[in-house]
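Comment thread on ticket #2218

A.B. wrote:
> Attaching the input chain for the structure job we discussed in standup.
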Amino acid sequence: MTEFQHLHRRIYERFVKAFVTYRLLEDNDHVLVALSGGKDSLCLLEMLAQRSRIDFPKFSVEAVHVRMDNISYETSTDYLEHFCNEQNITLHIINTSFSVSEEPLSSGRDARRQKQPCFLCSWNRRKQIFNLAQDLGCNKIALGHHQDDLLHTAIMNLMYQGRFSTMPARLAMRKMPLTLIRPLCMVPESDIRRYAELRGYEKQLKQCPYEHDSRRNDAKKLLDTLQQSNPEVRHSMWKALLRDGKLVEE
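C.D. wrote:
> Ran it. Output below, let me know if you need it in another format.
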């Protein structure tokens, strides 16, 4: 096999293993993919589209791209439409914005954090995605987080929250009939990055101005350092999350 074929097979196998292990996809699911336009969400959409053409489980897929007008973070709309057309997936595009002066959005969280651009941007994007999912009759929302994302989150929660947890592979929402799924949760970022290069994914036109100045970036550097001293550290962390039941929340 070529390098591309080998990578595709490895990513797809781990994608299938994740949805079987954590029961992410079932018959008659209607899945909405949050398509940012980055390599992770493009890979996720491609894998879901490929799997949806198989008879079992039988599910349908649509995609949504949310454009935040006041944050310089942009992907070519033409490219996303072309990509979704190639996969025979309907794409919905939503334009929205937010104000940094908004009141705290929920109780029980630090008010200063709520007013930070990253929090407000993420909260408003998800609000738009949740609303569209319910309007379309979707029961699941697929997010493009890979294994590194979950491990970085576990590190941040330990360092700053004093708890051992992460973004679960499957999370049933309590206040709405939706389940969040992360089908790439068993795929390392390095595989997706190389696959995107070989596949020729178009890069985003503009990057978020805040993405390199965050605690997540610090957690990424720490995990890289830990892996240099112990190449098995990601597998140990994953087993610990699995053993403590942190990868599924009903």
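A.B. wrote:
> Thanks. Noting for the ticket: The chain has a mean pLDDT of 90.
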